[in-house]
Amino acid sequence: MKKKLLCIALAFVFTVGLGLTAQAEDLALPAPSCILMEKQTGQVLYESNAHEKLRPASVTKVMTLLLTMETIDSGALSYDDTVTGSAHAASMGGSQIWLKEGEQMRVEDLIKAVCVVSGNDAAVALGEHLAGSEEAFVARMNERAKELGMNDTHFVNCTGLPADGHVTSAYDIALMSRELIWRHPDIRRFTTIWMDSLRGGASMLVNTNKLVRFYPGATGLKTGSTDSAKYCISATAEKDGMELIAVILGGSTSDKRFSDAKALLNYGFAAYSLVTVTPESPLPAVPVTLGTQKTVQSVLTSENALLLEKSRANGLTQAVSLPESIDAPVEEGEPLGTLDIFDADGTPVASLPLLAGESIPHLTWSELFCRLLKLAYCGA
């Protein structure tokens, strides 16, 4: 019974994913590789050659930022910590803030420089500060990529400057972008900056991501361009509580990169809604056989967001499916049943797991004996 319920609980992932890209058949984009992903569920709404291994240029820095924010949120690094620029960091070409060897800057300012103007010197300075060298930091980048399931990715540097074997895919970029904006929302303080400055106003910054200024709801994230990678972007935007990630690789021009990203975002916001499911009425408790408590309270999984086509998002109904009883022991978080969701036509939309809200141990022999005595002499 418990194995069967577990299978039912896991099946909802596949149920809600059915037909999500059906409306995208007419969305033809000139970009060689692209993808559209929703942040909270991680579901893909559109993709084209999304696993093709390509050079990402400075979109690489999404991973640099992810490792930096993870270190900050772990407490091992502070925004106010001071980083000293090395000769190696100062030698970086391409986009930069003209960091000098021996110059000291706060971590917060270096993050700002990476997010706003894609400073290669700032990215290397952060990597060296965190890992001791860029090479050691890149090893961490590749290790983290494997943990995230980025199977198309191999990093050679932390900047995205041209290097043999430095490749990733639109899908992998979406994965690391999602991890960054979902787990570390404070990054938005930097990725939404249009204009700012460093060094007390001596160095002006203007964001390389024009969507931050010109696309309503834009939240970031990172642009990149080199002769070999052409024009790339991981663009994020939020509307009506739903945040989308649009990745474009290999755009022929900067403007086409932005227009393709906007087309993906527009499609996603027009076609889909993110619905947070809550029970229409209090969920019932389930009787427990031979448990230390007579019942266990059912609770809805915390993963209760559904990404639905807008045509199916209104008029949803619910039905609770729970067993008549369950045998002890019961583990907290164990699947008990499902909350089944239907659209206005009565067609199943999803089955969300209902879980045990607490652990209920099995009665010991002495507890069972006492309970039998109580039943015999008290009738209750």
Shape: elongated
Average of per-residue pLDDT values:
92
Might you state the CATH topology name of the largest domain?
Answer: Beta-lactamase
CATH class of the largest domain: Alpha Beta
What is the percentage of strand-forming residues? 25-35%
Largest sheet: 6 strands, mixed
List keywords for this structure.
33% helix; Beta-lactamase; Peptidoglycan synthesis regulatory factor (PBP3), Domain 2; 2 domains; 26% strand; alpha+beta; five-stranded antiparallel β-sheet
Explained architecture:
The chain is α+β, with helices and mostly antiparallel strands. The protein folds into 2 domains: 2-13 and 277-378, Peptidoglycan synthesis regulatory factor (PBP3), Domain 2 (Sandwich); 31-272, DD-peptidase/beta-lactamase superfamily (Beta-lactamase, 3-Layer(aba) Sandwich). It has 11 helices and 17 strands. It has helices at 2-17, 61-73, 87-90, 107-117, 120-131, 134-147, 170-183, 188-191, 211-214, 254-271, 365-378; strands at 33-38, 44-48, 82-84, 104-106, 195-198, 203-206, 218-226, 230-239, 242-251, 272-276, 285-289, 295-300, 305-309, 317-321, 326-327, 335-342, 348-356. Strand 11 and strand 12 form a beta hairpin. The longest helix is centred in the last third of the chain and has 18 residues, at 254-271.
